Amino acid sequence: MEHESDTTRSEPMIHAHRTDILLIGINAKYIHASFGLRYLLANLGSYRSRASILEFDLNTRIPEMVERALQHHPFVIGIGVYIWNVNQVRSFVYHMKQISPETRIVLGGPEVSFEQATITWLAEADHVISGEADLAFHDLCAALLNSHDSKRQPEKWIQAPPPDVNQLTLPYPYYNELDIRHRIVYVEASRGCPFTCEFCLSALEIPVRAFPLEPFLESLQELYDRGLRHFKFVDRTFNLNIATGMAILKFFEMRYEPGLFLHFEMIPDRLPDPLREIIATFPSGCIQFEIGIQSLNKEVSKNIHRRQNQRKLEENIQYLRKHTGVHLHVDLIAGLPGEDMRSFARGFNQLLRLDPHEIQLGILKRLKGTPMTQRETSFSMIYDEEPPYEILQTSHMNFLQIQRIKRFARYWDLIGNSGNFTQTLKLLLGGSKDAFSTFMHLSDWIYQTTEGQRHGIALTRLLDLIFTYCTGTLRMEADIVATTAWKDYHTPNRNDIPKCLRPYIRDLPNRNKLHPNPASSAQKRQVQHQQTRS
To answer: Pseudo-torsion of CA 398, 400, 403, 408, nearest 10°?
Structure first.
């Protein structure tokens, strides 16, 4: 490998040599490894040996970032700007320009690719690349590093055309051993999206461009040989090209061993029989599908130019749930134009009846450059001006309703999605035809009882709240609630008995019989679902 990225969190090394090009990633969490920076590094050509990657997370203090960056003595710093790190990047750029004004700062990424006239702090940057910068960054660095040979300085504002993926050098060798062992490694077989959903930046990435299949599979093999067993595909439409999807699944089917975990985003209404058959061959928990439903209201889907066959969507989810071991993570978005509380509740209930493992409830965000910005007047859409730019109110959903849904989403993630309360959730919902309203009542009660607790709720505290709600507000038999909650709580990793259950749980069952340890190293939440859910 020509270069290993600097991703350690130990005491920084003082570099004796200059790193002319420093690629800085400010990731949401340490576990994330910047895919885009590795593409930039891979495509620097002859300048690759003069470049390094330095990664931080949102918990890193800005002065520490600046200090570690300056230890590389960079001439050029490139930073990717996203919705989750825009405030940190803004502060980093300000500090860097105050301390080392001669350092050239190049910004790219979706947060600075659109509506640039409204982003006043971009004046601090030397260059801004809009669009996919894989090749444009190379050209800019070449011009900057050889500026003494030319009187003409590169432009500040650079619009990068979509690169021909056949010309790109793949980035996978630039995941280092630390990435392989401890971080999420991203891969992609294609770029772009065939759909035009107005809320999504992928709507601007038409057409879909597929990477040459054989070199991509060779890269997967190299990662696999290095020990990688968790592959996260970022393709927006994994199952758009059925032949490619089949080839990728067959690749992993032939190499399957316990611990393999594959994450794909899929189109929910496109699942022909050949794809169904090979998916069904994988063991439980090996594959996760992230399925963007967004709304089941046909008028709302029409408003945002989202095309999906609802009948096929439901049929495919039911098939995957009943006949495969795929972990299903489906998404709904609150605040879409034309969606009111009743419509959103109806969509949630409809989706819940399909029994996915997780329903992720998101809040609409105003992403710069998306066509959704054209809907703001006609649907009275008001957004928070601070990242992540979430919707505050629409003509169909007022502020208080959206706040309730935000809380609902938080508690649903802790209770409904976590896998920690699978049986207890069934007891809570009690077969209700309006599960949304039933859970919303619990959500409101938790919020009032905890006085809007902003920090995390510990598992035992959450269990105590649910026990109190069931036995008090719902007047359920304490013995039944305790026994059900104990079945959920009692796993090989939990030997204690929560205080609220102690009067009712006396005989400890054999936990290994209750919860056999699956032969899989899938993510914790997926494993929890495997243990507690049929």
So the answer is: -100
